[in-house]
Write a structure and sequence with these properties.
The complex is a heterodimer of chains A (about 425) and B (about 290). Chain A is α/β, with parallel strands linked by helices and about 425 residues long. In chain A, about 45% of the residues lie in helices and about 15% in strands. The longest helix of chain B is centred in the first third of the chain and has 33 residues. Chain B has a single domain, classed as Orthogonal Bundle (MetI-like fold). In chain B, α3 packs antiparallel against α9, α4 packs across α6 and α6 runs antiparallel to α9. With about 290 residues, chain B is an all-alpha fold. The relative contact order of chain B is 0.13. Chain B has twelve helices and no strands. Classes of the chains: A alpha/beta (about 425), B mainly alpha (about 290). The interface between A and B is medium-sized, with 30 and 21 residues.
Chain lengths: ~425, ~290
């Protein structure tokens, strides 16, 4: 009998521990009993988030748990939603907000931080996305490497036109840096980040995309297309990996750039997380892509809010949890500790006007200066999901020399014509 | 106690296989059927509604040129890889059972690649193809080695095949080793007395007697090659120009990256059917060839 009792107790204990691991219970034993979960989709700041969660829990009594997944954001959230176990707060990309918000996000229009940012995301007239940071794309330069050869101070504004830029590259090549540029061959960089600038810099972006869908756009004779491709050809000409451009590894290119073996590469301020792994030069930054134009676009970076928090609206999240999540967002924007977490610990460019950011990395400093001056061209957030992959493949052919500019223009046009417009 | 009643049999079954069956149904059968249902919807993976669209996803699948290209590529890759893996494995197995010095060490050595996970393996070989071979090729000025194979369309496929052979040959070798060991010494001795040469005794005595090893190895390699994903992801990631995207990777991209869940699921189902048909057919044909001594 005793044995049976023991067995029964053991079994009960084990079952209890199992349900405890399930994590779907919102009840908490300690504190005010509120517990929220946060999904973080920026791997580079996961450690900082976990540390912050501990401190935040101690300070406020709200139990915070932070999760990360290697899956793509949409795929991971899909599994959490289908198992009825969503995160209270999820950090996602803009396109995920558009696809998720209607079913899964609560209205944040009444929040105080909305007035302090230019980058909040709205769906159907309601603010649903809390911008986590500002990110922008452009040409990353290594000023120290350039100055070492030219012997004069490098001022990126002097090279807004392609002619001036080509002159500088020639000088660098003559001065000993024979191949001063690098090109990322990844499809998300070529098509997702670079090719999309062609759309984003059109006067009427939506109209241009519509004309691409309808097949009436003429890329080959489009000024922006040719401007960007002229720049790209220049980069290809001076590419350190010209003979095997599509085998160039991102790590190698970033290292060469950081250490000054090359001086220019197209990228964004997120590249800092790779550059700072090497012996980097301090005098680095991001400049607009050079182009022979007078429309001013060669004085601006492309970017804006990046990564958005939304709060789950399902019945799996209680009102208290939602309030705790809102409090957390306010803490990020209006509390000194929250500000310090965003800008100092995570080194993110803040998307809020009231946050002064000191101590950012060189690339983020560039981005912030462009953002503060209003010199950011908006991201186009409605690219179809397969755009980067299919157009990226065509762009890689161009990079490998297996396709000419006209051929690439045709491929891109064919892609758009065969793709259904994104619903919005 | 009566042992031939229905209730007794049921109890017996539940006692021995009940839990396993329940788990199997829960994690394999139910998701499979649910998956079939999903092929009939245009679900995007996250929204609450799963609009029913009938067979539209299958129509889209048949119209998806990239999918059939990936299928064709997978066929080609599988045929070459399966043949090479088994030939190499068989030769290795023969060598390490023929009594060479330190054969246990060799067995362990050849098996080791199989212990490294596919993702890690891909990254290691990416380094070898992109850096080590290129450095070697440039310093010794060997033309074909001086630029990365991974950057050319044919080269990327070749790399995939090389890595697969390297990965699986050791594992299959173990099965062939077991096959060689199971052939009894008497039969071989009898063959020798009858005047068989070494080659003859392998071809006419050992091979027919170890047919079950062949069936197993072929089945394992065929299914693994058809479903290849991890090495594909870490070694080439479909590059260059999406020319090394295998069927499984295309299915993943279609469902999760392009967010066409229904189409992706339908394509996965077709991949499953193709794979199952090839696998079962091959086992059936192989079984017929089995003999017993």
């Amino acid at each position: 009998m005793k044995k049976k009792l023991l067995a029964a107790t053991l079994a009960a204990a084990m079952t209890a521990s199992l349900t405890a691991c399930g994590g779907s219970d919102s009840a908490q034993e300690k504190g005010d009993g509120v517990s929220i979960t946060i999904f973080n989709s920026k791997i580079e700041v996961q450690a900082q988030f976990e540390e912050m969660a501990k401190e935040y829990s101690e300070a406020t009594g709200v139990n915070v748990e932070v999760y990360y997944s290697n899956d793509t954001v949409a795929a991971h959230l899909a599994t959490r939603y289908s198992s009825n176990d969503p995160y209270t707060l999820s950090m996602v990309d803009a396109k995920d907000v558009y696809s998720l918000a209607e079913d899964h996000a609560i209205d944040l229009s009444g929040e105080k931080w909305v007035e302090n940012t230019n980058y909040a995301l709205s769906v159907g007239g309601k603010v649903v996305g809390f911008p986590v940071c500002v990110e922008a794309r452009g040409l990353i330069y290594n000023g120290d490497a350039i100055e070492k050869i030219t012997g004069e101070a490098f001022n990126p504004e002097d090279y807004a036109t392609l002619d001036a830029f080509q002159g500088l590259l020639e000088k660098l090549a003559a001065g000993g840096m024979e191949t001063p540029t690098g090109i990322m061959k990844e499809d998300w960089s070529l098509a997702g980040h670079f090719l999309s600038e062609v759309y984003e810099m059109q006067d009427d972006v939506d109209g241009f995309i519509t004309s691409l869908h309808e097949g009436t756009a003429d890329l080959a004779n489009n000024a922006k297309w040719n401007g960007k491709m002229d720049y790209f050809d220049t980069m290809m000409k001076y590419n350190y990996a010209a003979s095997s451009a599509i085998a160039a590894e991102r790590e190698v290119s970033e290292q060469k750039l950081a250490e000054g073996e090359i001086a220019f590469m197209f990228g964004g301020n997120w590249d800092w997380s790779m550059i700072n792994a090497y012996e980097y030069s301090e005098n680095m930054g991001i400049m607009p892509v050079p182009e022979n134009t007078s429309d001013g676009s060669n004085k601006k970076l492309v970017g804006g809010g990046s990564k958005y928090f939304f709060i789950d609206s399902s019945e799996n999240t209680s009102e208290e949890q939602r309030q705790a999540a809102k409090d957390f967002l306010n803490w990020l924007v209006f509390d000194e500790a929250g500000n310090a977490f965003l800008t100092e610990k995570c080194a993110l460019v803040p998307a809020y006007k009231n946050i002064a950011a000191a101590g950012l990395d060189p690339l983020s400093v560039s981005v912030k200066s462009y953002a503060d001056a209003g010199n950011l061209i908006d991201n186009y957030n409605y690219l179809p999901d397969d755009h980067f992959s299919l157009c990226g493949a065509a762009f890689q052919k161009y990079l490998a020399g297996q396709m000419d500019r006209a051929g690439l223009a045709k491929e891109v046009e064919a892609y758009w014509a065969s793709t259904a417009p994104v619903e919005r | 106690m009566k042992t031939n009643t229905m209730s007794y049999k049921c109890k017996q079954f539940l006692m021995f296989a009940g839990v396993t069956t329940a788990v199997f149904v829960a994690v394999v059968i139910v998701p499979f059927i649910y998956g079939i249902y999903l092929t009939l919807t245009s679900w995007d993976g996250v929204s609450k509604e799963k609009p029913f669209v009938g067979l539209a996803n299958y129509v889209a699948t048949f119209a998806d040129g990239a999918y059939w290209q990936a299928m064709g590529r997978t066929f080609l890759y599988s045929v070459i890889a399966v043949v090479l893996v088994n030939v190499v494995a068989f030769v290795l197995a023969f060598l390490v059972t023929s009594g060479v010095k330190g054969q246990n060490f060799f067995r362990a050595g050849f098996f080791t690649p199989n212990l490294i996970g596919g993702i890690v393996l891909g990254y290691i070989w990416k380094f070898v193809f992109n850096r080590a071979f290129v450095a070697l090729g440039t310093s010794l000025s060997i033309g074909p080695l001086s630029s990365s194979w991974l950057a050319t369309t044919g080269g990327a496929m070749l790399c995939l095949i090389i890595v697969s052979v390297w990965q699986y040959a050791g594992y299959m070798m173990l099965i062939y080793v077991a096959g060689f060991m199971s052939v009894s010494e008497d039969v071989l001795e009898a063959a020798r007395i009858d005047g068989c040469t070494n080659t003859q005794s392998i071809v006419y005595v050992s091979v027919p007697l170890m047919m079950s090893s062949f069936v197993q190895c072929l089945f394992l390699t065929v299914t693994r090659c058809f479903m290849v994903y991890d090495v594909n992801l870490s070694l080439t990631n479909g590059e260059p120009f999406n020319s090394s995207v295998m069927a499984a990777m295309h299915v993943y991209n279609q469902a999760f990256t392009y967010k066409n869940f229904g189409v992706g699921q339908a394509e996965a189902l077709i991949l499953f059917v193709v794979c199952a048909v090839v696998g079962v057919l091959q086992v059936y044909v192989g079984k017929k060839g089995e003999v017993s001594a």
